[in-house]
Amino acid sequence: MIREAIVTTRSLEGEPHIAPMGATVIEGGYLLQPFRPSRTLENLLRTSIAVVNFTDDIRIFASCVVGRRYNVDVKKATYLDCPRLADALSHDEMTVERVEDDPQRPKFFCKTYHSEGHNRFEGMNRAKAAVLEAAVLVSRLGLLPDEKVDQEMAYLAIAVEKTAGPAELEAWGWVLDAVAEHRSRRAS
C-alpha cells in the first residue's frame, strides 16, 4: 500500500526540505523512492533520517508540485534531528536502514523510529483526492498527451465542484494555472 504523504528531510547544514511522496508501507516502516536528481534523495543519502508527515492540507501537495510559494511551518521532530510539519495530523520519524541504488529511483528502506499523532482527522473529502490526482497529472505533463490530461481534469473537476472548500479551491486553481502555463511555454 502506498500512502500519499509529505516527506521532510534536512541538509547537513540543517536546511529543511518538504516534498510530496508516495510512501510504500513495508514491515516496520516505509520504502521511499525519490527521483534522481532531488534534494530529498541527497538529504536521505547524507543524513539517513526523514519524517513521513500525514496532512489533509492539500495545498501543501499542490504547491510543491506546481512550484507555488505556500507558507508551511516546520518544527523539530520529537526524537530525530529532522523537521516535521508543524500542523501535521500525525508523523512517523524514520531512519534509513538500507539503500538499493537505482539510476532513476533509489530505494530507501526506512524503519519507523517514532510515531505520533497531533490533530484530529476530520474525514474524507473528494475534492482533496481530486486535487491530489490533478497534482500527479501536473507532475507528468511532459509525458501525457493533452487529450488525456483534459479528460482526467474534467472528471476530477466534478468532485472539486461538488465538495471543495476554500483550501481545495485554492489548490485546484494552482493546478489549473500550472497546466495552462505548461501549454503556454510549450507553444512559444
Radius of gyration: 17 Å
The sequence of SSEs as H and E is EEEHEHEEEEHHH
Shape, principal axes of CA atoms = globular
> Strand percentage, roughly?
25-35%
Ends distance: 41 Å
Sheet of most strands: 6 strands, antiparallel, barrel
The spatial strand order of the largest sheet comes to 1-2-3-8-7-4
Report the uncertain regions.
none
CATH top level assignment of the largest domain: Mainly Beta
CATH topology heading of the largest domain: Pnp Oxidase, Chain A
* Second-tier CATH architecture of the largest domain: Roll
Structural class determined from secondary elements: alpha+beta
Provide the number of structural domains: 2
Mean of pLDDT: 97
Number of separate helices: 5
> How many E strands?
8
CATH 4th-level superfamily of the largest domain: Electron Transport, Fmn-binding Protein, Chain A
Assign a percent range to the helix content.
25-40%
Note down, in words, how this protein is organized.
- The chain has 188 residues and is an alpha+beta fold.
- 38% of the residues lie in helices and 31% in strands.
- A hairpin with a 2-residue loop joins strand 2 and strand 3 (29-32).
List the helices and strands and how they pair.
Blueprint: E1 2-10, E2 16-26, E3 29-32, H1 39-47, E4 49-54, H2 58-66, E5 74-76, E6 83-85, E7 90-100, E8 107-117, H3 126-138, H4 146-163, H5 166-187
Antiparallel strand pairs: 1-2, 1-4, 2-3, 3-8, 4-7, 5-6, 7-8
Helix pairs in contact: 2-3, 2-5, 3-4, 3-5
Domain DUF447: 4-118, 125-176
Pfam family, one: DUF447_N
Protein name: DUF447 family protein
